[in-house]
Design goal:
Blueprint lengths: L4 H33 L2 H6 L5 E5 L2 E6 L4 E10 L5 E8 L1 E3 L6 E3 L15 E4 L2 E4 L4 E9 L7 E11 L4 E3 L3 E3 L2 E10 L7 E7 L3 E2 L4 E9 L8 E8 L2 E6 L9 E9 L6 E11 L5 E11 L2 H26 L3 H8 L10
Parallel strand pairs: 1-11, 2-13, 15-21
Antiparallel strand pairs: 1-3, 3-9, 4-8, 4-10, 5-6, 7-9, 10-13, 12-13, 14-16, 16-19, 17-18, 17-20, 20-21
Length: 340
Amino acid sequence: MKLPKTIQNSKFKVQNYKSKSKIFYFLVLLLPFAFCLLPLRPVLAQEAQRTYTITPPTINQKLDPGQNAEGILKVFNNTDQSLTFTAAARDFIVEDTIGTPTFLPNNTLSNKYSAAAWIGIMPSTFTVAPHQRQELNYYIHVPANARPGGHYAAVTYTPSVKLGVSGTGASVNTEAGSLFYIEVNGPINEQAFVTKFLANLFQEYGPVKISTQIKNLGDLHITPQGTITVTGLLFNQTQNLASHNIFPEAARDFDNTFGQTWMIGRYKAVLLASYGTNNNLPLMATVYFWVFPWRLAVVIVLAVVALILAALYLKKRKKNPPLEAEKAGTEPTSAPTIEN
């Protein structure tokens, strides 16, 4: 026997209500487990990290052969625990193109640019109380026969436990160092050149990235200063070259980005920079490139051609009516036949 429609609807509503109730109770039971999982991430993120700060991160000295210099370094303990450090003067080298210093093992001379043996530090081992600072005295003695030019070293701080580092010029694992740039007065060779000045020769849209690399073959670190200017169709933009030190026998990369999405035409990029103790030695380079949205151009051309063809077709159709219509209008009608 078939139930009335109203009873069937009521039965469906009851079943629907029971299914929704089951889902609700399931979610209520699941909620406490979800809250148990939530604190796990904050607990991990709130794990205490011991940090310290050293200042200054870099020391620049310009000295004569046989001359001495001294100064003060500071280490700040930013934690709630006492920290013990060992300080040592070490050589470092730069092997990549982004200026990352690599500390060498103790008592290892890097090359003719070494200065670790010239630097003394007192105290060499010390403990810093929580949220306090320790001052260290450094002493520099330049040998009388020191080669003119740049000499480089770092005073590194090695903690007795794993720490985080802030406010420093360089770090390797848990070691951090104050970098020493010592320039010994005297005749030096200054030589650098642009090894790379590149942009994509063709790209569809902007912006355009220009990559510059400068190599230093001189006896002293350099800091090139200059600009890159890009000109093109209704476009003229100039940016400064970033200020970075380039160590002797090392190269440094510079990146600049020009323009926006919509660019079109041929562009010219010109590097004009200088370097040297008197900042009077030139660095120049030029590169050309194209930006053209060819896919968009193809779509526009096809759309224009389609519109032209459509217009010609409509014009021709208007002048010359269809042949069927002409036949229909001129077809002779046969006379009706009369049968006797």
